[in-house]
Structures are given as C-alpha cells and as structure tokens.
Amino acid sequence: MSLFVVTGTDTGIGKTVFSAALAGALGGSYWKPIQAGVDPEGDSETVARLSGLPADRILPEAYRLTTPASPHLAARIDGVEIELDRLALPPVDGPLVVEGAGGVLVPVSETLLMADLFAHWGKPVILCARTGLGTINHSLLSLEALRARGVPVAGIVFIGDPHAENERIVPALGKVANLGRLPHLPALDPASLAAAFAAGISLPGL
Ligand SMILES: Nc1ncnc2c1ncn2[C@@H]1O[C@H](COP(=O)(O)OP(=O)(O)OP(=O)(O)O)[C@@H](O)[C@H]1O
Ligand SMILES: C[C@H](N)[C@H](N)CCCCCC(=O)O
Ligand SMILES: [Mg+2]
C-alpha cells in the first residue's frame, strides 16, 4: 500500500493543493492529523473540493484546532494536549496521503516537532518547495532536518512558476529525487489540478 507524508518548506507553500492532486491521482485517502485554523475552511475541506475523491476518503482529523497558528499554540489556546498516541497512522485500504502542518520543524507540542512525528511514522516524505528566490536555503535546511532524524525522503516537488536553476541545484545538493513541478494555476478546480499534476509530476509507481 502506498503511503506518502506531504510536508513543505513553510506554511502556505501549496501542500494541500499538491496533496489533493496526489490523493486524487492515487485514488486514495487523505488525512490531516493536526488542523490549526478552520476559517473559512480546513485543509480537509479544500482536499474534498479539489481532489474529486468521495467524502468518505477524507479521514477525520485527530485534532481540529480553531486558531491559525503553530499547532502547539493552537492546542494551548483550545485547551487541548496533543498526544502521540492519537497520531497513529489510520488503517485504510489503499493509498493514503498524510499532510503535515507548516514546515518540518514546526512544534506539535512542547516536546515534539513535525519531523519527529515523521520519524516516528517512518513513512516516505515528499517535500513541497516553492520555485522562487529563497527556496534553496529553505529546501536544503528542511532536507537536513529530515535526514538528521532518519526520515525517508521520497523526493521534492516544486510549486510555482518554472525556475530551471533552482529546480536543478536543490535536488543536486540535497541528494533527493526531483518529482517535478506543479505550476501556479490561475483557476483551481479538480480538472485543471489533475491535468497539471499529470503533466508535471512523476512519482515512481504512479
Ligand atoms: N498550484 C497552485 N496554483 C494556484 N494556487 C495555489 C497552488 N498551490 C497553492 N495555491 C494557493 O496557495 C495558498 C496556500 O496553499 P496551501 O493551502 O496548499 O498551502 P499549505 O502548504 O497546505 O499551507 P498549510 O501550512 O496551512 O497547510 C492557497 O490559497 C492555495 O489555493
Ligand atoms: C496556520 C497555518 N495555516 C498552519 N495550519 C500552521 C503553520 C504553523 C507555522 C509555524 C511557524 O513555522 O512559525
Ligand atoms: Mg495545508
């Protein structure tokens, strides 16, 4: 069964849009274990809108927190304690796409970072990175942090307008597979997202 964890070099990088396309292409399920911020919608609702998957393939979040902030803070504001026991990967039939919150060193709690959670799961991670200026540093730092914890990295995906040199140097220096690029889409809808994913992304076994 294929299972991918989708992370990013930052919040707002395009993880949810990519995850929707990936889950749709795999014909799988989607899980956002920790949602921080639900107004106007959480990532699960976005994926339901963009993936073309039936509603029952969008698994309920383990934590659905109201504040758009770092999960450790959003949890504190809601009076909730985030516990590793509730973050076990859900058993599903078929492929699963799991989306992290923010970037790799975002705190889930006072003692746990997103990358620690990825290491605990031990499943391959896809790093979403923007194409433009600043991405080299953010991408290589993210890859170092993942590797330092022994997290398997399936590859990097670029999001945005093409930048040939950044798309070359980051995978080369980061020693990671380049899985392709999802362009910035002027209109986000299931059909155009699926077409852009099919044209731009190549995942082994897909
Ligand atoms: N390929 C794309 N084309 C057009 N718009 C995009 C694309 N990718 C992302 N966006 C837009 O950029 C914004 C941030 O994207 P997204 O919500 O996927 O980020 P994220 O990395 O999942 O953020 P978070 O850390 O909150 O989970 C959204 O408004 C989304 O619609
Ligand atoms: C609110 C946002 N959309 C995400 N849910 C959480 C992002 C946490 C980022 C924390 C940080 O890196 O400073
Ligand atoms: Mg998201």
Q: Could you please describe the fold and organization of this structure?
A:
With 206 residues, the chain is α/β, with parallel strands linked by helices. It has one domain: 3-Layer(aba) Sandwich (Rossmann fold), CATH 3.40.50. Helices cover 35% and strands 20% of the residues. The chain is built from seven helices and eight strands. The chain has helices spanning 15-26, 43-51, 71-78, 114-121, 135-148, 164-174, 190-200; strands at 3-8, 29-31, 34-36, 63-65, 96-103, 125-130, 153-159, 178-182. A six-stranded parallel beta sheet has the order 2-5-1-6-7-8, with helices on both faces. Strands 3-4 form a two-stranded parallel ribbon. Strand 7, helix 6 (164-174) and strand 8 form a beta-alpha-beta unit. Helix 1 (15-26) packs across helix 2 (43-51), helix 1 (15-26) packs across helix 7 (190-200) and helix 5 (135-148) runs parallel beside helix 6 (164-174). The radius of gyration is 16 Å and the shape is globular. The model has no long low-confidence stretch (mean pLDDT 97). The structure holds adenosine-5'-triphosphate (ATP), 7,8-diamino-nonanoic acid and magnesium ion (MG). The site of magnesium ion has 4 residues, from helix 1.
Shape: globular
CATH architecture field: 3-Layer(aba) Sandwich
Largest β sheet strand count, sense and barrel closure = 6 strands, parallel
Strand order of the largest sheet: 2-5-1-6-7-8
What's the number of structural domains?
A: 1
Question: Can you tell me the CATH topology?
Answer: Rossmann fold
Distance between the termini: 12 Å
Average pLDDT metric: 97
Radius of gyration: 16 Å
Order of helices and strands: EHEEHEHEHEHEHEH
Number of strands: 8
As a percent range, the share of strand residues is 15-25%
Poorly predicted ranges: none
CATH hierarchy, class: Alpha Beta
Protein name: ATP-dependent dethiobiotin synthetase BioD
Enzyme class: ligase
Catalytic activity: (7R,8S)-7,8-diammoniononanoate + CO2 + ATP = (4R,5S)-dethiobiotin + ADP + phosphate + 3 H(+); (7R,8S)-8-amino-7-(carboxyamino)nonanoate + ATP = (4R,5S)-dethiobiotin + ADP + phosphate + H(+)
InterPro entries: DTB_synth_BioD (IPR004472), P-loop_NTPase (IPR027417)
